[in-house]
Design a protein that fits this description.
Elements (H helix, E strand, L loop, with lengths): L1 H22 L4 E2 L10 H7 L6 E7 L5 E8 L2 E8 L5 E3 L3 E2 L4 E2 L4 E2 L18 E4 L5 E7 L4 H16 L3 E7 L8 H11 L2 H8 L14 H13 L3 E2 L1 E3 L5 E3 L4 H14 L2
Parallel strand pairs: 10-11
Antiparallel strand pairs: 1-12, 2-3, 2-8, 3-4, 4-5, 6-7, 9-11, 10-13, 13-14
Helix pairs in contact: 3-7, 4-5
Length: 264
């Protein structure tokens, strides 16, 4: 029995590592619900023929899998489905530190996909492109996020491709990047796209001084929380559509054209 538990635990670790690697190609931070969704109906379709009915889908205390509450002929059990939706592993899974089963996860909630763009202030932003542009794109970014750095290059291409685009960059430092908060303060205080460029180029920024305000960055952090934004980069289009993860300039241009047309 113990060998079986260890074997399945190792499989889960491998799946989680694989999923984490795939997620890292798009953005930093966030929670599983921001990128992965599974309904009870879809779960039942996936496990059809294996025996049992899925009654609830949850996120357990580990990344890479969903926890499935299952029932058959009055008997209850738990199983795990990897984020690739290719493998089902019977539970329980044991935490090697506590020697207790990982169960009772948090029931998943749907990620935020739309917000009211009018609720996003234009202030506390670094503006790229045409400040008077009719196509407004909001981007929540972290100066220490490598995916934000990649996106930043595409945003600069975007504004050169379309003179009617205004990109409002919101400095949203994540707790996982300990130096990002002070960098964000310095960049926003200077209202400098050059300092943002330097941060993404990994150049040394001036240290924050006693007069370097934290107010603007703190307001953006509170704004992100109120909107349900929890990862970087996150893009918000003119129609309010929320899209986490880096995208290339051509893709953003196409999306902007369609979503700007849907703006009311």
């Amino acid at each position: 029995m113990l060998n079986r538990i260890i074997y399945f635990s190792m499989l889960i670790v491998l799946f989680a590592a694989s999923v984490a690697s795939a997620m890292s190609k798009e953005g930093c931070g966030g929670d599983c619900a921001g990128c992965h969704a599974l309904t009870v109906k879809e779960a039942n379709t996936l496990v059809k023929g294996l025996g049992g009915k899925v009654t609830r889908v949850k996120f357990p205390a580990m990344r890479g899998v969903w926890e499935l509450d299952m029932e058959k002929e009055g008997k209850k059990a738990v199983a795990y489905l990897d984020f690739g939706k290719k493998h089902v592993i019977p539970g329980p899974i044991f935490d090697l530190a506590t020697k207790k089963p990982i169960s009772g996860g948090v029931q998943q909630t749907a990620p935020v996909t739309k917000v009211n763009p009018a609720s996003i202030p234009l202030g506390n932003s670094i503006v790229l492109g045409n400040p008077k542009g009719k196509k407004r794109l909001f981007v929540f970014t972290d100066p220490d996020c490598p995916f934000c750095s990649r996106l930043h290059g595409d945003l600069k291409k975007l504004v050169s491709m379309d003179p009617d685009v205004a990109v409002y960059v919101k400095l949203f430092p994540l707790k996982m990047h300990p130096t990002a908060y002070d960098k964000s303060r310095v960049i926003l205080q200077g209202q400098s796209a050059k300092l943002l460029d330097d941060a993404f180029a990994k150049l040394q920024l001036p240290a924050p001084g006693p007069e370097t305000s934290a107010k603007g960055v703190d307001e953006t952090i509170r704004l992100a929380k109120s909107l349900g934004v929890n990862s970087t980069p996150t893009l918000i289009f003119p129609d309010g559509s929320v899209m986490p993860g880096a995208k290339n300039a051509a893709e953003i241009k196409t999306l902007l054209a369609g979503k700007a047309g849907k703006k009311k």
